[in-house]
Amino acid sequence: MTSTLSDRWDCRPLLSGADDLTIVFQPIVDLASASVAGYEALARFPGTAAPDVWFAAAHEAGLGAELEGLALRKALASLPDLPPNTFLTVNVSPHLLGSAPVAAALAEPATLRRVVVELTEHMPTPDLAGLRAQTAALRGRGALIAIDDAGTGYAGLQQLAEIRPQLVKLDRALVSGADTDPVKTALAEMVGAFTSRIDAWLLAEGIETAGELAAFARLGVPLAQGWLLGRPAPHFAPLSPEAAQLVRTQVARAQLAESVASLLRPLRQHGPGDADGAPPPYVVLDDAEVPVELVLADPRTGAAYRAPVSLRVPPSAGVAETLQRALTRPPVHRFDPVLCTDRTGTVVGLLRVEDLASAAAAGR
To answer: How many C-beta neighbours within 10 Å does residue 91 have?
Structure first.
């Protein structure tokens, strides 16, 4: 290796030339808007070995900083082509952040605005004060700081506490199969609560199934990335119409699950004079088809009794809000069912207070 080369990319023990390393870009999706929020720059190498293998070989050969510096330089060279209102995430090993090749690559752009510097490993850092100073300097040039693989090990949690990143990537091990594993979901929810406390954004990485996407949409995770949403490409690809529709569908379902619509029970309707003898429950409509009275069954005796319509809500009403309104009614009607009507006043169903309470206790 000729270490005196001015551009400090020389990795000839590993690569025959700088062009052997190429950069691809994977979209990061804003779930609320079903649009691309940013792109992660990923290094690619000749042959079939994974990038991790190449970077590990570079570190073993004493060329880790040179290879990371080369990857950074190529990724940052794409900034002029970055689509408006998106950011670019670049990966850096924390222990190499102050090395000459990495520092030189990060110094090349006039500004690091719209750049997210992602710290990609969580080995114990003996000089946390130095790391804080380095990340502060990057922030001073406009960069945001991200931490990868949140939720894995003490070192990662220590970096979260010390660095206070603006973006936190949820470890893939917690993302894979989260829709069928309540423990993973609980851990992801815990990390999400922590990130909100430090005013950071949470990103679920490695989403590969619609079930996983649905799980993180229900948790309210703002950003997502994975093959389901978009594979790495040699250019800044937009979100495909199919992926955008999938995101919109899953987010809409998640919002529906947080509303009373998922708790509706069917309810028969009768006019003022045609309900005699009908089994409860049902709602009585006046001549203008306005619901005025509920006919219910006493849970202890089964006998029918009548109650006025004391509370009406739309299907989009929140569970907690509806429960609160129900329980603040006069005591005699406090536990009567709640009527649900659409925006035209048409009855769509009945809500039991016990169902609202169960859903609220489950955190919906």
So the answer is: 22
